[in-house]
Amino acid sequence: MQKFSALSLLRAGLTGHVGWQRQWRSPEPKPGYDVIIVGGGGHGLATAYYLASRYGVKNVAVLEKGWIGGGNTGRNTTIIRSNYLFDESAGIYEHALKLWEGLSQELNYNVMYSPRGVLMLAHNIHDVQSFKRHVHANRLNGIDNEWLSPEECKEFCPPLNVGGSMRYPILGGALQRRGGTARHDAVAWGYARAADALGVDIIENCEVTGIRRAPTGEVVGVDTTRGSINAKRIGVVAAGNTSTVMNMAGVRLPLESFPLQALVSEPVKPIFPCVVMSNTIHAYISQSDKGEMVIGAGTDVYTSYTQRGGLHIVNHTLDAICELVPAFRRLRMLRNWGGLVDVTPDRSPIVAKTPVSGLYVNCGWGTGGFKATPGSGEVFASTIAKDEPNKINAPFTIERFRDGAVIDEAAAAAVAH
Ligand code: FAD
Ligand code: PYC
């Protein structure tokens, strides 16, 4: 694998950029693999990478119906944080955050992780109480989170409008300083490149159309638009399409798929130093390295498989943003798009074995799975390799919806309700 360093980039710049290699191969599918991963988003690619790098399982294929990272991985607003309420969530999101901190070095690929701080604004008494509860719960779990007064919010993020009579007054905010953003495409490409170098086959334009099971019930392979492929272990990581794919194996999951939208403005000079989230009004803002304001909105009200949402949803978000940051009234919006998010009843993911032998599922990350990408991939790889859950993902079963051991993160997931 070509090594990247400051020196190698300089050398390439001075020698006409002629020596760049393909970042991953484009192999034909083999007749069979030890493990097939369905879905070439960040979570699927991370799973394949950790299977090969940490668990020694290298005969792996990632099957992607489109292009890698073309699903939610390439459509999200890239907010990374671990300030969820419950111990189980703290475990999995903090595991991910720690991996983010060394990911560029591990992959030798700059994922542009930028811990610039995530500030969650409180607009009413309920928000204040709920966020303070999160601050205390997080600190008990060793996760950084602190409460800021309105004046401290303004000091941390000067463009915010914290005074005057506002429809959505800012009563304070919860700040996770280690939170931030990363470059979503680079995450998919970095994992793909590193997995490929370890022998994983990444097969794009290969839609899984069926999951084959033996008469005794266990999985034996998949049917795809590029032929049938055998495997005794299959991991489904298909985000908004998970219900459809799992149906192919006869497994029903408690999931609903909703469109979730984002938009970007024209690029402007650096003005916005951190990430601001306003869960109450469904508005999420950060500034990209190109200078665009990256804005997230809420989910649509209706379930759907369209990768775009209702205009009134983004209008509502922009109304609120113009009040929170009056300077943005003069910004023009460049483009908007939608992704398909898979939402569970308790707004927590499922990362688990299924009732079908050899079939594993990683889904239900809903509106908030980008931040979990490294941690999710690592624990899912462990679950597939050992055929038993890792202690971090053990609580995130399908059975919790039958047994009642739910992990209610509706307040932390924010966008999903
Ligand atoms: P995906 O990247 O969607 O990958 C699944 C892949 O499976 C897709 O590429 C799809 O093509 C493929 N697939 C589906 N069916 C098949 C099939 N039959 N055969 C083969 N391949 C198939 N999370 C955050 O943490 N922070 C945020 O700020 C944030 N903002 C968001 C904003 C928006 C607008 C959206 C839509 C989501 C946001 N999220 C955010 C959520 C986050 O993007 C997702 O939870 C996460 O990216 C899911 O990753 P994934 O790899 O599971 O899914
Ligand atoms: O999970 O932090 C998040 C998020 C922000 C916008 C969409 N999801």
The helix fraction, in percent, is 25-40%
Which homologous superfamily in CATH is the superfamily of the largest domain? FAD/NAD(P)-binding domain
Quaternary status: single chain
Shape assignment? globular
Bound molecules: flavin-adenine dinucleotide, pyrrole-2-carboxylate
| Tally of domains | 2
Name of the top-level CATH class of the largest domain: Alpha Beta
The CATH architecture of the largest domain can be named as: 3-Layer(bba) Sandwich
CATH third-tier fold name of the largest domain: FAD/NAD(P)-binding domain
The strand order across the widest sheet is 5-6-4-14-15-16-13-17
Instruction: Write the element-wise H/E pattern from the N-terminal end onward.
Output: HEHEEHEHEHEEHEEEEEHEEEEHEEEHHH
What is the averaged pLDDT score?
Answer: 96
Contiguous low-pLDDT stretches (5 residues minimum) are: none
What kind of sheet is the major sheet?
8 strands, mixed
The count of strands amounts to 19
β-sheet strand percentage:
15-25%
Number of helices: 11
Q: Radius of gyration in whole Å, from Cα?
A: 21 Å
Distance between the termini: 44 Å
Q: Structural class of the secondary elements?
A: alpha/beta
Catalytic activity: sarcosine + (6S)-5,6,7,8-tetrahydrofolate + O2 = (6R)-5,10-methylene-5,6,7,8-tetrahydrofolate + glycine + H2O2; sarcosine + O2 + H2O = formaldehyde + glycine + H2O2
EC number: 1.5.3.24
GO cellular component, one term: cytoplasm
Main location: cytoplasm
